[in-house]
Each structure stands twice: as C-alpha cells, then as structure tokens.
Design goal:
The chain is α/β, with parallel strands linked by helices. The chain contains seven helices and eight strands. A six-stranded parallel β-sheet has the order 4-5-3-2-6-7, sandwiched between helices. Bound molecules: 3-methylbut-3-enyl trihydrogen diphosphate (2 copies) and magnesium ion. One 3-methylbut-3-enyl trihydrogen diphosphate (IPE) binds next to strand 3.
C-alpha cells in the first residue's frame, strides 16, 4: 500500500542555525535568536494561507539548558516578549496554541503566560505546537510510565500518552541549517514521517521556503512498510 501524499497535515520544524547566522555576520548570538523569532512570526502569519492543520516548532530542548546562562536568559526573555506581543495576533488569526515538553517546570511567570495563552487560543482551529523544554526520550518515558498505570504497555498505549496524542500524525519533519540529526525531537512521531534537511539558517527561513518544502513533500511516495 503506497500513499500518494498531496497534502501534509502536520509539519514540524527543528529551527536551527540562529547562532551561525549571527556569527556569519559578526553579530552576537542574541541577534540571531531575535531574527529567529521574526522568522517564527512570519511563518505563523502565513499559516492562514496554508492547508496544514498543525505546525510544530522546536523552540527549546531539554538539552539546551547546557548552554551558558546568559544565552538561556536571552532566550527566555525573547519568549516572554514574543508571547506578550503576538498573542493577540494568534487569537485574531484563529491559531490554537499547544505546548509540548516539560514546560511547566519553566520560570513561574512564563508558565502563567503560557497558561493564559493556551486559554485565550483554545477555540482556534490551526494548531501551533511549540516544543519547550522538550526532549523526546523523556516524553516517551513519561508516556510509557503513564500507560503502565492503566494497563498493558503497547505501542498504541504509549502513543496515546505522548504530548502529541491529540495532534495529527507527523507527515513532514524539516531541519534547517544543514545539520542532519534529530537532537531528541519527535523520535517516536517521526517513525514514518518524511524528512527534509535544508541548508538555510533558521533566521533566513521564509514562508516561501515552507511552501517549497510542502511541494517537495507532495512529490514523495510513502510506503509505511507496504508496497
Ligand atoms: C537554534 O539555533 C535555536 C535554539 C536551539 C534555541 P542555535 O542557537 O542552535 O544556532 P546554532 O546551531 O548555534 O547556529
Ligand atoms: C535543536 O537544536 C534544538 C532546537 C532547535 C530548539 P540544537 O542546536 O540544540 O541541536 P544540536 O545541539 O546541534 O544537536
Ligand atoms: Mg543549533
């Protein structure tokens, strides 16, 4: 059984390369992260014109805590600013925010802001899932532990307890900036996802690049192990 694709319901992006974007220009890394936020903003704005149900963005990994404290502070500051400035636009544009990962252990004020953002966007129909303090191995371990309290641990029961349980199946996983690895992102969900690795650094990634990626996806033949 092969599936001709056409349309991707769920696209995820590993937004990589902010640091190198800045370095290339002799700028501090934080400027790269700022530009990266602008790229997110443009992409979210473009969602209304795209025929996808869910866009999942890897914003901060559980391993990113290994970075220097000042860079982590910059990232958290940018996150606060982004939520504050763009939340009204999310609501106006029918976006439903979803957060995956261990986000409840972020700073209390960020948790409060996110809870408010989730409540305000609850009626939206286009899902923007943001992976915050996210690690896929940890997610799978949590899901397996939760599944075990309810009965036999099977692939289906684990899947039902993943943070992504209520999202459409992952169709396309994109990573920017030339690295060809998953860095602990959606390991389970990517089992049969199509992958696309592009050289573009994240701050340079535009809605047009996402459309190009969707065109590329539409030409692929998925087999899911069949023939
Ligand atoms: C991605 O850009 C942003 C985060 C991981 C938060 P990087 O900061 O990883 O940029 P590079 O990989 O060093 O260029
Ligand atoms: C993955 O990028 C995490 C995010 C994009 C948020 P990293 O830059 O942290 O990944 P590695 O360290 O190069 O694998
Ligand atoms: Mg990186």
């Amino acid at each position: 059984m092969t599936t001709s694709n056409g349309r991707a319901r769920h696209v995820a992006i590993i937004m990589d390369g902010n640091g190198r974007w800045a370095k290339q220009r002799g700028l501090p890394r934080v400027i790269g992260h700022r530009k990266g936020v602008e790229a997110v903003r443009e992409l979210v704005r473009s969602l209304a014109n795209l025929d996808i149900e869910c866009l999942t963005l890897y914003a901060f990994s559980s391993e990113n805590w290994k970075r220097p404290e000042d860079e982590i502070d910059d990232l958290m500051t940018l996150m606060r600013r982004f939520i504050r400035s763009d939340l009204p636009e999310f609501v106006a544009n029918d976006v439903r925010l979803k957060i995956i990962g261990d986000w409840r252990s972020l700073a209390p004020d960020i948790v409060d802001m996110l809870e408010d953002a989730l409540a305000q966007t609850a009626k939206g129909s286009r899902i923007l899932a943001v992976a915050l303090n996210y690690g896929s191995q940890q997610e799978i371990a949590r899901a397996a532990a939760a599944a075990a309290t309810k009965g036999p641990v099977t692939a289906d029961s684990i899947a039902a307890h993943l943070d992504t349980a209520d999202l459409p199946p992952l169709d396309l996983l994109i990573r920017t900036s030339g690295e060809v690895r998953l860095s602990n992102f959606l390991l389970w969900q990517a089992a049969y996802a199509e992958m696309l690795f592009v050289e573009t650094r994240w701050p340079d990634f535009t809605p047009r690049d996402l459309i190009t990626a969707l065109d590329n996806f539409a030409k692929r033949e998925r087999r899911f192990g069949g023939r």
